[in-house]
Amino acid sequence: MNPRIFPIGDTPAGTSLEPAFRTARHRNLLHMAIAACLAVAFGISAAEAKPLKVFILCGQSNMQGHARISTLDHLGMHEDTIPLLKAIRNEDGSPGVHEDIRIAWLSGSGERTGPLSTGYGADETKIGPELTFGIVMHQQLEEPFLIIKTAWGGKSLHTDFRSPSAGPYEFTEEQIAALKGRDLDIDAARRTRNEATGRYYRLMLAHVKKVLGNMADYHPAYEPTQGFELAGFVWFQGWNDMVDRGVYPDRDQPGGYDEYSKVLAHFIRDVRRDLEAPDLPFVIGVLGVGGPVSRYTPAQQRYSAIHQNFRDAMAAPASMPEFKDTVAAVLTENFWDHQLSELRDRMGAINQQVRQAQSGEALSREEAEALRSRLEKESFNDRELTILDTAISNQEYHYLGSGRIMARIGEGFAKALFSLMD
Predict the structure, then answer these.
(1) Which of 8, 260, 339, 369 is the most buried (most CB within 10 A)?
(2) Lowest mean pLDDT: which of 28-42, 98-112, 151-165, 333-347?
(3) What is the pLDDT of residue 49?
(4) 392-407: per-residue pLDDT in tens?
(5) In 3D, which of 128, 113, 142 has the Cα closest to residue 53?
(6) 56 pLDDT higher than 80
(7) Apex 338 CA angle, 402 and 332, nearest 5
(8) pTM for the model
(9) Which residues, other chains included, contact 363 with Cβ-Cβ below 8 Å and sequence gap of 6+?
């Protein structure tokens, strides 16, 4: 299997490409044909006439990335992630700028482009998996490439990213009963849902096609005579589907999320069809907030069946025969930082103890802070307090806003995708 280079031929039936994309695609193919002839005439090797690789990253808030740049310091506190930190930063500690790797990043706040560095997360103060994905992929490829990233927070696969071949969203019996119970117009609810269905799939596709139709604007290494190659797609989403008991009423039962697997399989097929890349390597970032369920705390255990069922459903398309050797599932639970969550829980217990003391004993602010300081000294050593101050910047559903977790996830995506590529 080879990553798909755009072929000469007509657009598949049922696929509508924007004129700019079609024009650029055919010009790209003509230039590639000319380049091939020149390569033969002048003895240029195929390796020297490579098309520019393009990787697509897509999903919701965790693909956006909510790890503050400051939390990257935590990578330097663990031997296994020190090499990643050295690759991210210059020797003086400033963020590295990777000129060979360019990014075209579209989210709710608009488009951001440029050489890969920190600041391409949910906002300019954050990172997502794109940072180490690009760095680690470049270490393996040793050539320039472009990342196209599209992500929007709070979006589902069942509706927002639903792709055409999955068909219209159908309300479950439970949802219809709930609408009737609230005396709402079911037909109006269906129209509203139909209008929302697939909107973000279309936005993602439009952005990808816009960039592919104007490649010279996005990467200075792009040569029309060499063309470009769609080399891989990474999908990192899931939270809004996992928590939606209306769409998945049997989510705590085996097979309760089977519909997610079906819609994701349609998504993969449609992405490949609409981008004319039938063998496009595809990585599924399986939601892994909290780590493996086997290590859940007693407080987390009530969610273990739901979480495991959903993770199994997310990973399922990678085991489908039609996707053999072209789709891989990356279990992001394996990159969870258990020390971080344990330290956070321990600090949460102290906060609760201080609040109880304040409400029961009418402590002054100074007395409450003195109590907190004493409890922290009794419960944590200096290294643990430094980690707490450094490593967490968001909630658990955003992987604690941890740069170390997000960096390892990006690394995992790059290695998995590279393994699917020849």
Answers:
(1) 260
(2) 28-42
(3) 67
(4) 999 999 999 999 999 9
(5) 142
(6) yes
(7) 65
(8) 0.88
(9) 357, 371
- Partnered with residue 113 across adjacent β-strands are 104
Q: 237: exposed, middle or buried (C-beta count within 10 Å: 0-12, 13-18, 19+)? A: buried
CA–CA dist 420, 263 (Å, integer): 22
Using only C-alpha atoms, the chain has a radius of gyration, in whole angstroms, of 24
Q: Edge-to-edge strand order for the sheet containing 98-107?
A: 110-116, 98-107, 145-151, 52-59, 228-236, 282-286, 327-331
* Low-confidence winner among 15-29, 165-179, 334-348 (lowest mean pLDDT): 15-29
- Dihedral (CA of 408, 130, 265, 244) sign: positive
Chain segment 1-42, per-residue pLDDT in tens: 333 332 222 333 333 445 555 544 554 554 445 444 444 444
Lowest mean pLDDT among 65-69, 103-107, 177-181, 214-218: 177-181
- Tell me, rounded to whole angstroms, the distance of Cα 67 from its chain centroid: 13
Question: Using CB atoms within 10 A of its CB, is residue 364 exposed (0-12), middle (13-18) or buried (19+)?
Answer: exposed
Rounded Cα distance, 141 and 221, in Å: 15
CA–CA distance, 411 with 136 (Å, rounded to integer): 6
Task: Give CA–CA dist 323/413, Å, rounded.
Answer: 17
What tokens appear for 296 in the block? 């859940």
Q: For residue 151, what is the DSSP state?
A: E
Q: What is the tens place of the pLDDT at every residue in 262-292?
A: 999 999 999 999 999 999 999 999 999 999 9
Give residue 174's pLDDT band: very low, low, confident or very high (50, 70, 90). confident
Q: Burial level of 42, CB count in 10 A (0-12/13-18/19+)?
A: exposed
Domain definitions of the chain by residue range: 19-163+198-337+402-420
Polymer length in residues for the chain: 422
Cβ of 263: how many Cβ atoms within 10 Å?
Answer: 23
CATH code at 19-163+198-337+402-420: 3.40.50.1110
pLDDT of residue 360 exceeding 90: no
3-state per-residue secondary structure call for 208-271:
HHHHHCCHHHCCCCCCCCCCEEEEEEEEECCHHHHCCCCCCCCCCCCCCCHHHHHHHHHHHHHH
Two structure tokens written together for 116: 């890969």
Q: Locate tokens 């050593």: which residue?
A: 381
Helices 199-212 and 258-274 pack at an angle, to 10 degrees, of 30
